[in-house]
Amino acid sequence: MSETHRPAAVPAEDEPDLLRDQFRQLLRYRKLIGAGIGIGLLGGVYLGISTADTYVATADVVLRTPTDDPFNPSIAADKTVNIGSERQTALSSSVAAEAAKKLGVPASGLPALRGGLQVTNPPQSMVLRFTYTASTPKTAATRANAMTEAYLKLRQSTLQDTRDTMVKGYKEQRDPMAKQLDDLVKQIAAMPAGPARDTAYTTKTDLQNKVNTFNSSIAKLEALDMTPGRVTTTATPPTDGDGPGLPMSLALGAAVGLALGLLGAWVRLVFDPAPRSDGDVSRALRAPVLGTLPRDRTGGGPLLAAGEADPRLAEEYRSVAFRLAYDSRFADRRRLLVVAPRGSSETAAAVAVNLAASFAETGKDVLLIEADLRTPVLASQLPTDSGGRPRWSQMPGGTGGRGAGPTEAEWPDGRQLVVDAGESGTFDLIPGDRVRNVPRALTSPRATRLISEADSPGSTVVVLAPPVLSYADALALVDRVDGVLVVCDPRAVHRTDLARIRELISGAGGTVLGAVLHAPPPGEKRTARRPGRRTPAAEPAAEPAALPEPAEEHPVGDGSDTVALRTVRTGRR
Fold first, then answer.
1. Which backbone phi and psi does 497 adopt, to 5 degrees?
2. Residues 254, 257, 262, 263: is their CA dihedral positive or negative?
3. Which of 54, 67, 397, 501 could cysteine-pair with 401, CB 3.0–4.6 Å?
């Protein structure tokens, strides 16, 4: 026997593939991205309009320190001037008040006058750059120059006041000594020669030296060049507005909005409980994705896909059937259980029917069993003809089994239909029927013998069951069917739901062969349902014997003796 394909492990993806996959996942949230771009464009329009009538004028001032020798290289201005303090002085209200006097701005407009000024210091320089923003070019240039002049005037006044204070202090110390010196000179002139006169001369010399020192300090201060600085660049009216312009603002807004939209989509992607890709589905089920049905072609039409009417859909079903045929886990027993996670089984029914047709096309004797005894629909939606008695009914006890009577199990009742699949051929259908006790019917000896038809050479049995998370019916069949195919909309189921399905099926003795993904049927919202809720379509009619929900509350394998587990043990061969 040739080696068969076992697609159980999910191959590792390369980093470029992961990046492309993540980018495709982000594009699923087009509304968030579009909203971000819209907000960015609105911000760009506001920026373009608000800065359209804004003009900026700039003036530069080079600061210098007072010195009596401006050509002395040992005197460095950056060591005697604190540029940070000077910048704060330029922004002070004193400078603004001085400029307001020249501009004729009232006191009430002083805050607005200060608000338009910005003073900066280019690195590694003694330059203060006065930048003024106004609504007109002329106003911006006029106010920038006025603020510059007011700052230089205030700085010069401050330096002069400092010098005058120091000169006054020196003079106050010198004048008493000078008077004392004059008095001493008069006394020496009247004194006779002798030691007393010599002592007086010594005192005179000391006083004269002190007076000369003060005179030297005063002369040096009075000789200082008190120029506070010079204007190197005079502000001129700007020709263009300060804003980037409407086109540039829109481009910037679109770029920022796109970044915000992608960020919002990424946050939404991180916290999205639904599978984000086929790889997520594979990892949750630990089984490959066998196929993805074409969008908008999975509901609303006939269950049996016609090759000429919808070739893409028909080929996708054939592809899934061939992948199953080359999986040794299915090829060894040729039994397949098709289930949906929760909600409606409409798409799962379509997958089961078309897989049966695809297997029949390969020459297999296919038996499709509708084990959905709560909402059976296949007999009314498929082109069927009454066939002969199926082989299972002719086996010993086939009409009811040992000890089985009509009151014990009402299904299967021996009815067999032949489905015409067109060019694919025909296959047999055991239609479902509403029964009084679903668990007993599914685990009856007749149902077991019916599923064992796959043991015949060239035979294949496909079983359609209700959603596995809504009812425990599928778990009651898993031990006899083994291979399970999960049919789901990846945007309508949580990753935790898929992991739970795998745990339930594995605990019941079965194997998940793979998954078939589809888009939501027409009219159904693309939202993941919360666990424990059923759609109205999945609610059976008054069914007193329906299995309760213990399959969800007590997963198979936890040791609890629930109704679902008792049913599985009873039906195990």
1. -65, -45
2. positive
3. 397
Threshold 0.70, pTM exceeds: no
pLDDT of residue 189: 83
Take residue 1 and report the two structure tokens written for it: 């026997």
Q: How many beta carbons lie within 10 A of that of residue 377, not counting itself?
A: 16
Strand 127-134, strand 117-120: pairing = antiparallel
Q: Which tokens hold the place of 502?
A: 């795998």
- The predicted pLDDT at position 23 comes to 77
322-360: per-residue pLDDT in tens?
Answer: 999 888 888 888 889 999 998 888 889 999 999 999 999
Looking at residues 376-399, what average pLDDT do you find? Answer: 63
The dihedral over CA atoms of 424, 374, 501, 428, expressed in degrees to the nearest 10, equals: -20
Q: Is the dihedral of CA 81, 85, 90, 95 positive or negative?
A: negative
Residue 1 has pLDDT above 60, yes or no: no
Helical axes 30-50 vs 246-270, angle rounded to 10°: 150
Return contacts of 65-68, CB within 8 angstroms, 24+ apart.
Answer: 66/159, 66/163, 66/224, 66/225, 66/226, 66/227, 67/224, 67/225, 68/220, 68/223, 68/224, 68/225
What does the pLDDT read at residue 395? Answer: 42
- Tell me how far apart the alpha carbons of residues 48 and 63 are, in angstroms, rounded to a whole number: 37
Q: For 171-185, what is each residue's pLDDT tens digit?
A: 999 999 889 888 888
Instruction: Tell me which residue of 430, 411, 433 sits closest to 419, measured CA to CA.
Output: 430
Q: Check the CA dihedral 467-468-470-475 and report its sign.
A: positive
CB atoms < 10 A from the CB of 9, how many? 10
Q: Has residue 67 got a pLDDT over 50?
A: yes
Query: In terms of DSSP H, where are the helices of 191-276?
Result: 195-222, 246-270
Tell how strand 365-370 and strand 426-430 pair up: parallel
Q: How far is 312 from 297, CA to CA, in rounded Å?
A: 9
The contacts found for 166-172 with CB under 8 angstroms, 24 or more apart, are 166/221, 167/218, 167/221, 167/222, 170/214, 170/217, 170/218, 170/221, 171/214, 171/218
Q: Which tokens sit at 242?
A: 């300060």
Which pLDDT belongs to residue 120? 92
Name the nearest CA neighbour of 555 among 504, 505, 510.
Answer: 504
Residue 404 has pLDDT above 80, yes or no: no
Q: Which of 457, 389, 439 is nearest to 551 (CA)?
A: 439
Q: Is the dihedral of CA 216, 219, 221, 224 positive or negative?
A: negative
Tell me the C-alpha to C-alpha distance, in Å, between residue 491 and each of 77, 430, 517, 518: 71, 32, 10, 9
Per DSSP, the residues of 51-71 read: TTT-EEEEEEEEE---BS-TT
H/E run at residue 354: helix 346-361
Among residues 365, 341, 370, the alpha carbon closest in space to that of 353 is found at 370
Q: Quick one: tokens of 50?
A: 């608000």
Taking only the tens place, the pLDDT of each residue in 448-469 is 888 888 778 888 999 999 999 8
For residue 1, give every residue at least 6 positions away whose Cβ sits within 8 Å of its Cβ, in sequence order, or none.
Answer: none
H or E element: which one contains 278?
helix 278-285
pLDDT in tens, 262-320: 888 888 877 777 777 788 888 889 999 999 988 654 444 577 776 556 788 888 999 99
